[in-house]
């Protein structure tokens, strides 16, 4: 294959684990990140976020000399681009990070390299990435036309679960789509270095869309559960009991509702489909709107719980977007705490998040929000808001019997029976 060195552009929740697992399998890897703090941490063998087992991989890779971090791309045989793909205020995708990465890689290319886009992207983004590269390097080509050296472009979306990334990166099946069949084949050979799952080949647009479809499917199912919680509340029915009973049907498996949907995947990816096919993606759009509206419903539940208290203290348990991680991206819990503090400036909000050492900037800027431990929150609060079902909160829940509780995760279901 001719790939002996790899550069991973973007050392975040996906890029750094990818770099570390490649290095663990004997491949010399250069990690590239615009953050000097991230570059410094990696070169010290440290991980700038929480992910089980990753720290050991990074430490071993750096100490062995197979992984180092830099601030700008250097020549390599293959590049894996794993940078953010957020959306803008109108839910249109922001591809500026991918464009910046493509234009940064272009000057160091010699021809013959493989460039893989891992970032979750709207359909057609891999081709746009190729256009950005070739715009700066007209001496290179996709197909060798004009006797110009070829650069191979492919898309291989990540499909791992935070908290299990180092396991699922190895065991999960992967989809690889190339702008050309040769690009797809080369990408498959690269991922075979560490991936034990089946590697399925297709074209780039299908690979891009497959990842969006996977997360849209999950979003629609979550939206059903979240909408059901609104219906049950209207009818005076315990939604947790309702779902438990309904799931005894042999062909029914309703998910559990929550305060919304967070993370960089499910809360974002469906909008890329809606943007690409706005007239056709009606159900996908509605599911997004249901899930995006849930934090506002939770906020009103909290306001009802503290009605009549002039200066209430509200304990908010959990800020991460899912249990047992420190990832706050697109977290509905953060949104709820922020809106509660702004809507009720005379309230004090005690945020309890055992996986972080400081509040995110948007909460730290609010004078009535403090990060505290669970003991202080339980003792001081007039109302207790359960937002994330971290394992460590199980002992907290046992102490909430008889207290004023707003439970968005079903953690107290059956507590008073």
Report mean pLDDT, rounded to a whole number. 95
Radius of gyration: 23 Å
Total beta strand runs? 13
Secondary-structure element order, N to C: EHEHHEEHEHEHEHEHHHHEHEHEHEHE
Please give the largest β-sheet.
Answer: 8 strands, mixed
As a percent range, the share of helical residues equals 40-55%
Spatially, the strands of the biggest sheet line up as: 3-2-1-4-5-6-7-8
Q: In terms of structural class, how would the helical and strand content be classed?
A: alpha/beta
Measure the end-to-end span.
Answer: 63 Å
**Binned strand content:** 5-15%
Taken from the alpha-carbon principal axes, the silhouette is globular
* Tally of contiguous helical segments: 15
Question: Which regions have little confidence, pLDDT < 50, spanning 5+ residues?
Answer: none
Short descriptors:
417 residues, alpha/beta, single chain, 40% helix, five-stranded parallel beta sheet, globular, 15 helices, eight-stranded mixed beta sheet
């Amino acid at each position: 294959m001719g790939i002996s060195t790899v550069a991973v552009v973007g050392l975040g929740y996906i890029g750094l684990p990818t770099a570390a697992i490649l290095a663990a399998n004997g491949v010399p890897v250069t990690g590239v990140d615009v953050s000097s703090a991230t570059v410094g941490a990696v070169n010290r063998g440290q991980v700038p976020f929480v992910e089980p087992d990753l720290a050991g991989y990074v430490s071993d890779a750096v100490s062995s000399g197979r992984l180092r971090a830099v601030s700008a791309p250097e020549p390599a045989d293959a590049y894996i681009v794993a940078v953010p793909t957020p959306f803008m205020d109108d839910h249109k995708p922001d591809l500026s990070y991918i464009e910046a990465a493509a234009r940064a890689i272009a000057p160091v290319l010699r021809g013959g390299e493989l460039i893989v886009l891992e970032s979750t992207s709207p359909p057609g983004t891999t081709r746009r990435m190729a256009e950005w590269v070739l715009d700066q390097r007209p001496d290179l080509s996709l197909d060798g036309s004009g006797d110009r050296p070829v650069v191979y472009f492919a898309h291989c979306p990540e499909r791992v679960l935070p908290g299990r990334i180092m396991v699922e990166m190895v065991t999960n099946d992967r989809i690889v789509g190339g702008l050309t069949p040769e690009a797809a084949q080369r990408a498959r050979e690269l991922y075979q270095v560490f991936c034990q799952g089946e590697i399925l080949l297709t074209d780039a647009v299908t690979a891009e869309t497959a990842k969006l479809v996977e997360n849209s499917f999950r979003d629609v199912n979550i939206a059903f559960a979240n909408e059901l919680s609104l219906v049950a509340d209207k009818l005076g029915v315990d939604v947790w009991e309702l779902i438990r009973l309904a799931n005894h049907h042999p062909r029914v498996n309703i998910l559990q509702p929550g305060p919304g949907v967070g993370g960089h995947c499910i809360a974002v990816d469906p909008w890329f489909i809606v943007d690409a096919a706005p007239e056709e993606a009606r159900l996908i759009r509605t599911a997004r709107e249901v899930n995006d509206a849930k934090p506002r419903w939770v906020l009103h539940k909290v306001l009802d719980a503290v009605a009549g208290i002039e200066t209430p203290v509200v304990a908010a348990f959990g800020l991460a977007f899912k249990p047992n991680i420190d990832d706050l991206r697109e977290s509905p819990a953060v949104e709820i705490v922020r809106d509660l503090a702004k809507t009720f400036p005379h309230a004090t909000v005690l945020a309890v998040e055992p996986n972080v050492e400081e509040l995110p900037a948007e909460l730290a800027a609010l004078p009535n929000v403090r990060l505290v431990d669970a003991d202080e929150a339980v003792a001081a609060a007039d109302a207790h808001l359960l937002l994330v079902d971290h394992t460590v909160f199980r002992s907290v829940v046992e102490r909430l019997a008889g207290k004023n509780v707003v439970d968005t995760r079903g953690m107290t279901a059956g507590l008073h029976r």
